[in-house]
Amino acid sequence: MQAPPIKNKCNDIARLRWACRRGMLELDVLLENFLNEGYSRLTLSEKEQFIALLNCSDPELFAWLMGRETPADAAWAALIEKIRQHAQSRI
Q1: DSSP for 29-47?
Q2: Which of 3, 18, 21, 62 has the most CB atoms at less than 10 Å from its CB?
C-alpha cells in the first residue's frame, strides 16, 4: 500500500491539530495557534517542513521556538521564525 501524497497530508488539518498537541502547554499554544491562523498561508514546501518539525522532540522545539537555539537547517530556521513572529503578532 502506498503512502498518501504529501499534498493530502498537508491538508489533513485534524491530523495536524493532533500532532500539535505536545507535552508542554507552551508548545501546544504556539503550534495550535499557528496551525489555526498561519498555516494556510504557507507554501506547500513550508507545509511539508511544518509536518517534519512536528516529528522533532519537545525539548528541541521548545528551544527553537523560545529563541534559545536555532535549527541547523536554514529552511527550518525560517519556518521557526515565522511561527515566532506569528506568536508575537498575537500579543
Answers
A1: HHHHHHHHHTGGGS-HHHH
A2: 62
Q: What pLDDT, on the 0 to 100 scale, is given for residue 8?
A: 60
In a domain, 31, yes or no: yes
Distance CA 63, CA 65 (A): 6
Vertex 34: Cα angle to 22 and 72 (nearest 5): 75
pLDDT of residue 4: 44
Closest to 88 (Cα-Cα) out of 19, 44, 37, 50: 37
The pTM for the full model equals: 0.86
How confident is the prediction for the chain on average, in pLDDT?
90
| Count of the separate structural domains present in the chain | 1
Establish if 3 belongs to a structural domain.
no
Q: CATH code at 44?
A: 1.10.150.250
Residues 49/87, Cβ–Cβ less than 8 Å: no
